[in-house]
Records
---
Amino acid sequence: MQANDEVSLQVAAGSVHAIVGENGAGKSTLMSVLYGFHTADRGTIEVDGRPVQIRNPHEAIALGIGMVHQHFMLVEPFSALDNVLLGAEPHVLLHRAEAELRKRLYALMLSTGLKVDLDATVADLPVGDRQRLEILKALVRGARILILDEPTAVLTPQETETLFGVLERLAAQGTTILLITHKLKEVMRLAKRVTVMRGGRVVHETDVAQTSIEQLAAAMVGRKVAIGRDGMAARRGGEVRLRAAGLACQDALGVPRLQGVSLELRAGQIVGIAGVSGNGQSELLELLAGLRAPEAGTLELAGRRFGAAQWLDPHTARELGLAHVPEDRQARAMVMDFAAWESAALGYEDRADVSSGAGWVQRSALRRATAALMERFDVRPRNAELRCRQFSGGNQQKLVLARELSRGPKVLLVGQPTRGVDIGAIEFIYGQLRQLRDAGCALLVVSSELDEILALADRVLVMHAGRIVGELPVAQCDEQKLGLMMAGEVAA
Amino acid sequence: MNSGLPRWADLGLLPLFNLGLALLVAGVVVVLVGQDPWRVLAALLHGAFGTPRGIGYTLYYATTFIFTGLAVAVAFHAGLFNIGGEGQAILGGIGTGLVGLWLGAWLPAWLLLPLMALGGALAGLAWAAVPGWLQARRGSHIVITTIMFNFLASTLLVWLLVNKLKPAGSMAPESAPLAEAAQLPSLHQALAAFGIEWPASPLNLSLLLALAAALGVYLLLWRTRAGYRLRAVGSSPGAAAYAGIDPKRQTVLAMMIAGALAGLVGMNEIAGVQHKLLLEYVGGAGFTGIAVALMGRNHPLGIVLASVLFGALFQGGAEVAFEVPGFSRDMVVMLQGFIVLFSGAMAYVAAPLLARALRVGRAHG
């Protein structure tokens, strides 16, 4: 596969340069080349006007290139200080190394405004602190060029604003910042210049001052897209299809993950759950789908009542018309090594159209049905024999949606409907979810993207620290208000 | 596993390449000890396939490997590494032998032989179910427990033979011989009934049972709901849980099926060849089954082919040790070791190389 094709990129020193593009557009490959994870088959790299060779991350660091990955590269049981120390110990004796590094870090924190408790264990640090730590780590190693891969994916709007403040300050102090993102609003807010990639090529490069979100989106996808709210007023919804009350659960260590969560899903209405990832949304979804049982609470679904002692199981959930599009597509929603047609039966393998009474899988019928679904949901490539892992994220998600929607669910739970999905597919997925709502299904959408909640939901619940801290009709939502609630600072 | 190769190359080219590599390295060693590798190879091939009798032996060994290979593969598809084929096969022999010893005097062959097969399968099944249950319910790692169960099985066999089954006055740790009705006809006897002459060899009708088992495993895994669930648990426990499949149940089930398959070794060795219960009738075939399953890529067809290859190595190797002076049995074991190493443990080492070669070939072609 050609991931990058004749890509040229020039970044001015001390500026913020954004690189945008859909998944698979080649942004990450390009950054891996700059950071030495991959070497380019052809082409040259110059840093400060000098041609250089970057064969591995060590050489990149030596040239003053630092990278903050989307998934943090931190050792959780270590202290923040030791994480910075790791791999760049300035002295053979640990206490001397720590003392020296601590001094340098304090100086750096003072000049950049990046504050982290150096003695805290990383596992105890909030996500924002971990990210600051990653940036500090890069800077203390002498980074003058900082590559940030989707840095705001895990932050609240307020944390994002703080991060941007820091990045602006760094840029003003002469650090060059390369920002990889798919959030165009952030590009407009922070970057000086922007490069748009599509299909491994640079398709557009411009000063941010001379472009607009619409223009950038069109360049990313290659056509005009509309993914905002469809304009229709919020639905009031019909009868209650699912009612949960007083849900509580703990993780393996006994830390409470959910406390007293109650909610109702109504026919013909989309309830959106906003919140920073890790505030109990995943647990809530798993409880409602029957994937785990709570310590306390009740659930009413299709006239059946479940208590903590005798909780719903996934099989019964499907029987009762509850469908679930899980957050973690790779680990839950499909078997990545199965052919598309095989995964298209996952969870429904005892239905008459999937297997006979004697237990034989109806292979040809299933293949035909999957081919038809792929046609209807525009899954590309249209090849039901392909392994699930060979599809792109967006097409995998369409396959999962196709499976769950084709069973005509009464209740649909959707976790992160468009995570890792490109803009073109987002438009399609939103359309499908709205159609389902209009057909009378009760939907619950959990998303860490506020824009997504605002675009889809009729009613918004905000979660923080395992509780529902606010409930608003979508008309009364704005980013500022929701952001504060997500941070746990106000309740509604 | 994802090798980055197209399917045909992954299933056909890569195993052949690995086999060639193993032969090449073994050939170098043969040269180093001062022998002619071509002569050794010729003797090996002739020993394994050159005579009807040789073919008989090759296929007799292959039969046992098919059973133990399938036992590894079924467990593998459920995400379990079954090292216990050896013990499960020993139990299979015990089950088969005990049924034959107890009922041999009363039942006709057409009824007795299926019962003996069932006895072997059930004994293997029960033996494998325990580690399966321990894994599913108590989290005891299947690799550790199945290894320990191998030791238990061989001790159990010794105890049974010495303390219970050894006829009074006999010095050998062997049971009394099985009744005629409890002896599975060998292939030359069966063919003679149709008027076809075939030289005597240990090859017996359990080869057909092995081929049927391979077909059965294929149908189970890829054509039935039960196989679908088993494979779902094996390749993605998270997705299986999402689908409402109970992974614990699948773990126990997969181990029981694996144990039953390994247990059928009793039909080949005890009912088919030895006609009595004795020591050492599995002789490491349980472990060879791991190599067979690895080389056969856990697919029944691949396992049948790999079994024939390993059968040929066993039979041809014995011939080489006999034919080529100065070439001991140990050298054959070495060759087997290289094959296991290259096509099992290092099966994917050459994959990137081949993938690149194919890409280059396509770019120029």
---
Amino acid sequence: MAETMIEVKNLKKYFKTRRGMLQAVDDVSFSVEKGKTLGLVGESGCGKSTTGRVILRLIEPTAGKIIFNGRDITGISKRELRELRKEMQIIFQDPYSSLDPRMTVNQIISEPIELNNLIKDKREMERRVLELMETVGLAERLINTYPHELDGGRRQRVGIARALALNPKFIVCDEPVSALDVSIQAQILNLLGKLKKQFGLTYLFITHDLAVVNHFADEIAVMYLGKIVEKAEAEELFVNPLHPYTKALISAIPIPDVSSRNKKRIILKGEVTSPINMPDQCRFAKRCMYVDSKCWESGPELREITKGHFVACHYV
Amino acid sequence: MNGKDISDLVLKIENLVVHYETEDGTVEAVNGIDLQLERKRVLGLVGETGAGKTTTALAILNLIPDPPGVIKSGKIIVNGKDILKQDIKELEKIRGKEVSMIFQDPMTSLNPVFTIGEQITETIMLHEEVSKREAHRRAREILELVGIPQDRADEYPHQFSGGMKQRALIAIALACRPKLLIADEPTTALDVTIQAQVLEVMSALKEKYETSMIMITHDLGIVAETCDMVAVMYAGKIVEQGTLEDVFNKTKHPYTEGLFNSIPKINDRKAELIPIPGLMPDPTNLPKGCAFAPRCSYVMTECHERPVELKRISDTHIVACHAYNKPDFHIRRRAGER
């Protein structure tokens, strides 16, 4: 049996707001095998980024368990956490605001190494930085430039080099290509794919872009208002989506092909609301075209329908 | 497209050149483009950040910020009117009545201190001789058309979600039934299910009012879904132009090919992405020859030396690429390969 890199069990993250308890992540469970990529998809406000941050304990979970490499890290101390962060890293969406504008590329990439006292010799450090830059495809001459001198694609490469600096095993990629143009997006996706093979990385790939996640992930979990509504192998999910929300999402993707122009689309009514003080009901009920009284009475559990294909819907 | 009677054309752009003259140098944003749009047609203006799409759109409304923007040359005819020769009074009549624009970011395009209803009413009263009461009635009617309940006309923008704000902007843009609607990345800031709603509303209203449209987008999926004609821009020039069928199924320009090869294919998840190497050229320092030459996999010496002219492939299809001087040249992307 394949080894599990990361597992979350009944993870919850609630935020207190003036209007009540915002259930950003509500009872989410999944695991990612070593060397695999789990894609976490959903629209803005569905809790996908919060999930990624809670897993790294950048924010503290309200309840639930996070098991990293066989070890429960939910309650470990700050000091232990610092050790652990060498193994788990994050790449952010916006390469414009996630890099310190007053640091050079050299400083940005070497900072995590310095903080962990891994390399003390200056020359050795420079060698390591150049090695990382080469790994992510940054030209040597850029070593002393500042982020504002770089375009979005190069900035994202700097962010990736920094994330790789401590040889992590697991990386949360939070919308890593959403801010980039398509021709640059393809460069970065290919780079992430190459690094995964080269270093045996495990990814949690968070995105709103279904075409990207379909291309990149091995398995996909679809989130809606803080809950996972469907989870399956990527191929299976796209060929055989079962949850009404997943069906609508896939149907809404504009396909760059003349022949699919007049394809009948599922147009959802309404909009995503905030999961504040949610009663026990299906969270998609308000927008669902198959809604029934049962959906308002209780929230459906995530059930395994066929092997590896999980759906949370009363009527599947 | 050739030899069409001018009265069939809603828009005709000839040799438009727009520069931004800044302290750091001259940004050559739009470098000689020609465009025509017939009635009731939808033209997709495609390209990546910095291609000059938005500058082109702003020029059509004569809204290029000046300074630093300078329209160096060119002629823009909207509905028979020469836009660049109108005075400010005339332009105010044209904007919103003949041409309207929807911007990318619905969050910043509405005035926060007026209700949605007031903002639509204002547009109608600016352009038509109607009473406030009548304008208000029509404002509510058009809100309903874009899928917003009439009683929400008295709410302020902050009470609307992103999708509803964008629909309210569509309502404002179409309130006076303009002949031409320019939509600049109208759904980029929206989630995919909301995008589907907004695109549906736009195409329904366009049909109803017989509006011609320019859809500015970087998303080839949206182009396939909404457009009849396509113009691909790169570094301020149109590099390929034709019908949807021409550009998507008989792709000619290496840059267009590169765009298609860069996007993940939803029906073939294993297909390898082939990125375009390198970056967009610096618009203050464009290459002497073809601007795409430094990134092009078919590049020849003359590409670096001579600017490219547009070559006509068929009645509807034109391409700007030196390689087509060789009669047997073709790109690798096969027709229908996606």
---
Amino acid sequence: MRPLPWLLLLSLGLASAAHAYPFMIRHGYTQCSSCHTDPSGGTFLNEYGRAQSELLLSSSYGGGDQGTDDALPEPTAGRFLGFLPMPSWFRPGGWVREGYIWNAVDGKIVDRRLLQMRADLGADVKIGAFRAAAELGYGSAEGTPRLAQITHSTTGPNLVGREFWVGVETSGGEGLLRAGRINVPFGLRNIEHPSFVRTATQTDLDQDQTYGVAFAISRPAWRAEVMALLGNLSVHPDAYRERGAAGYLELSLGPTTAVGVSALAARADASLATKLPTLRQAYGVFARTAPWKPLVLQAEADVLLNRTLGSGSQDLGHAEWLQADLEPLQGFHVFGALEAMKTGASPDLQRGAWGGLWWFVFPHVDMRADVVQRWGQGPATLTYLVQLNGYL
Amino acid sequence: MRLAPFLLAAAIAAPLAARATPNFPAAIARDLGLPAPPACTICHATNDGGAGTAVKPFATYLVSRGLVPFSEGSLAGALAAAAGEHHDTDRDGVSDVDALAQGLDPNGNPSQAKTLEDPTFGCSSTGGDPAGTLLLAGVVLLRLLASHLCRMRGAAVPRPGSGEGTETRTRP
Amino acid sequence: MRRMLTAVLMVGGLVHAAITSPSATAVLVSMHGPGGLNIEGKTAELSISEQDGDLLFQVPLAGVDTGIGLRNKHMRGYLDVTHFPTAELRVARKAIAFPEQGKVSEADAAGTLTLHGVSRPCSVHYRAERTASGEVRVRGTTRFDMQDFAIDVPAYLGVHVDPAVGIQVDFSLRDV
């Protein structure tokens, strides 16, 4: 892949995604549904999840160390904005994320910009077994996730809607059947959504949601979700809409280890990239483990198959991601990742290295600094990004 | 004194530098003396551009001649190479530079989807101009205030296991 | 005769000492919640004593660690460890058969579980394996409903723990 797409990809979307933290497995949370309204993680937090954000995620300033039980304060962030008790059936949320990015090629800064990454408001509703969720957001002129657009401006900001659905809980709350615009269930739901594994499989949390029907189930020893992809109605004309299926199955091998498999197959009459009828497939494995509580390792490897229908040609590629997250102090993370990708469109092996610091300053407020280098085709690129995020 | 609030304030205030986004279509028109900027689809799959969509053969050629992202200087160099080499991407006898001057697509007409319009996104046309940075500052300050108020008021969820407050379930 | 009696008493004493001196102890308490929530409490504190022909397994509850300090605090409240500091399992000594070297014995044994001041009969499944070195590795498991022991079902911010609780105890013995 040439530097331009890499840098555009990183700069337009670095970490503007939903807040899914697979590294919470270090606390024994193998199931995302414990804290999130989406059983596969990300998006809204339930009341319990809000409390865990204060207890486990954010820095503690003398209010009680998780290593000792003395004088542990009860969390206040279980309440909306920290003090507003919400009815149990209504789970609101909102995100505002801003950043500043510098892109360098061959050691020279060629681009630097303020990024408006995300500004969304929404809520999840649970009345008996009935469930519904929706979020609306603002996308700046430079940062609109076009696949999630509701308004149509090509030069100005847009109203975006990444996720909205209705559903019903089953199996005593362990299952969720829903329909609407939903995150595609595949692989690690990592927040580094411009990573190769997310972009190559088109499961980017920033904009790759699509319309469909999904069923998810979460049990103590395993969780899974399958989804019928019915096409992204935000894209016109219909020829460009992909239809197919995707899903994953993850097994908990222990309280701090989980492994999974993913599969995706989608067909479009016209690919957005080539305008040719295309069958796109991805099959992969992923894993999360915390061999030592401060350290979480995550990995994903995917095989990519793109077949241009009618021509007989098929591209075979792959994408990998290996990440280490170290939390030496509660709320303060040091992370690094290696990635690689090879696709038919860019036959040379592309490689990337990520590193950075991530500080959850207060409950639902975090700061992050990333350095990302990519190389393998064309000149090497280096991206620096700082960002500040607030969650309501 | 906590350092965090000051760092947060600095982080909010810092990213206020001017934006610098290259405008390649206008730069191409300027460099080649075109009457109007060309469509984004001379390089990108769609007129919305975006990451990973610069897949047209003309774009591939320009990159091979040193085009780097956001650099109008490298764009000028790549266009100069195209002119000097009389490069003809679609091999129709008209060089890329001449095609652009005539308002044509140097990639030619792809064999597929001559009648398929470029993709568009969204449902209707509206727009706005909210102040994202101010909104973020508001959220962060609101969180700080909420955290401070809660600690001052000593707001607490009732202790569990005491029969008070926190819900429990017992058999009837 | 005296020598034989002394020898029997000595052997019995050695066996007694061996049983009441477990090593490599591990106690795991498993609870589940909605959406696949899995909570595990762990402690390495386990004592074994013999009383009236029964083996008495005791676990101090204050030391059980679920991995989250506040959750430990809540759990101690629900268990009322101030008044009921230990959990006890009483199993008849003759109900447990230790295998020969290189073999495994596995069976169910009836016992009595005392928790939160309430005693209830229970069934314990145990597996004992004697290794080549003579060490006997034992694992015992049982399940109970916390409401049978007058323990309020824990709930926190909309998350209720399932009343069914699983217990797994591992320990090693020598010279038994």
---
Amino acid sequence: MSRIFIAALGFLMMAVAPVTLADETCMSPYMAKIVGQEDYVYIWTLGMEGVGDGEDKLVTVDVNPDSKTYGEVVHSLSVGGRNEAHHSGLTDDRRYLWASGLDTSKIFIFDIYTDPAQPRLHREIDDFVAKTGGIVGPHTNYALPGRMLITGLSNNRDHGGRTGMAEYTNDGDFITSVWMPTDDNLQGAVKSGNYADGYGYDARALPRRNVLVTSSFTGWNNYMMNLGKMMGDPEAMKRFGNTVVIWDLHARTPKKVLDVPGAPLELRCAWGSRSNYCFTTTALTSKIWLIYEDDAGEWQAKAVADIGDASKIPLPVDISISADDNHLWVNTWNDGLVRLFDISDPHAPEQVFEKRIGEQINMVSQSWDGERVYFTSSLLANWDKTESGGEDDVQYFKLYNWDGATLTPQFSLDFVEMGLGSPHQMRFGAHALYGKAPAKTGHDDMAAR
Amino acid sequence: MVLAPGYEDLQFEPPSAGSYQLPSMGEAADGLILNTLGNAGRLHDYLGDKATVLSFIFTTCNDVNGCPLATYVMSGVQKAVLKDPDLVDQVRIVSFSFDPEKDTPSVLGRYGDQFRAEGFDWEFLTTASEDALRPTLDAYDQWVIRDYDEEGNYLGTMSHILRVYLIDSDRRIRNIYSTSYLHADTVVNDLRTLLMQ
């Protein structure tokens, strides 16, 4: 019996799994998805001075429990320098992994299909700023049909938070760019509250409603500044995003600017066919916000839950929605906790679980069935707890199993001890996506069919 | 099985034609073809004079959200274009097979006869061999996995990502549709937008 089940809308892996509009919970709905056991986690890792070669790298960890190298780093590919490695994303056919650097604005495109166990560098984009007309800090790499959408965090005029988005072909050729709406130029959007700051961060699509949602963080001047220095600078602390923008997905034109004060970061949209809403969390105010279409068809935003005690600055970072839209994992970087919220009533989330994972926890990724939950540490090179003398500046990749009540540790990798660096975004890989069985295990039943 | 959105009414009001841009995604590649009469030619013979919707299919495909969806949506496009005098002489549909072994010119011709309305410019193209087909599939990023049994025998089925291309009269790709995006109303809206620019 097949242990790997893969399906995607339009991806003709016959008789393996119900076709849904989803991916393993947090990625583009246009993408093939792994709904069974993933073989690899690809970790875009920030280089640390004095740790290994000090370079940013794509680290491949074998996570198939039936493999002889389960829980081991099986491949590491350095890219020749530090770029403030941060987020990554897969093309809609899952053949390429795009990984971007917030400092240098470089994008590295890795081929992960020729040999899923050993990604290779396919192409490097080093003219992102020039091609896009001044967008700096490529962040989210998000699959649209036959193309990639790249959100920016900053610009090359003042390195502040005003920014835009760019589109590239899957091959890495520039198509077009668009700037976020501002008070100066709303581009036809309706400003529904006090802000139209033009900041950017994440993006998610709800194709059935022709909606693209974007969030807002801060510019290069802040995200490359020492965290303590920035928090002591009142002017710098004013320069955070306070908006979520609703776009016409097809036309790529902004329709409505919503007030979501306090730096709304990750966006996760519900999968249900009638669930016209997304969640985000605000880094500075520690709240869960619901971005939703009301009964009149208008898109709205409202704070629906607190995450810990905001006065203690828990600093919510990554979130992960379950495939059934009932639960949301929320990591808080400052206290090292993961919290689970019941979001079955999206207007009234309730915290139902919490566990300390480790210092400076950041990213969380769960398998489609929700049974495996992966965590990494590290926020940004200049924000991590480097001044603790190493005690709190821990860098790890951890796997837990989730049974609905308890997170049980499976393995943990120390990325400093292993000479790798600071692990950030995780993406899953599987041989069965490409009709291949892994050579090293030779399992005939690994294929999707 | 969840049917793709292309089988249902569009669940939103699309942006009005001409109100948005369809920036070029690059040149549409050429390649060797056979038409349904068995005549050899090039794909570019069917691109360049009209706005063209190009889909890749194979006639034995039985995944309802794959090639049948593409052909269903193309039928819807045909129906809408036939009703629009501004479009009817400006649009061509091309259905390109990626199974030269089974989709011979005559097989593809009979398949096309089931869908093509009289007088409408809907071309069905195949190739003489896998070798002739491969460069075109690569150029259009049309990744296909053939299905084999444990003895290595071809099962006659294939796995692929559905891709449909909108190509302008200068042979530039202006949009790419996949299963959860492909809808006749969207394609026709884009065709109108192309012809207004």
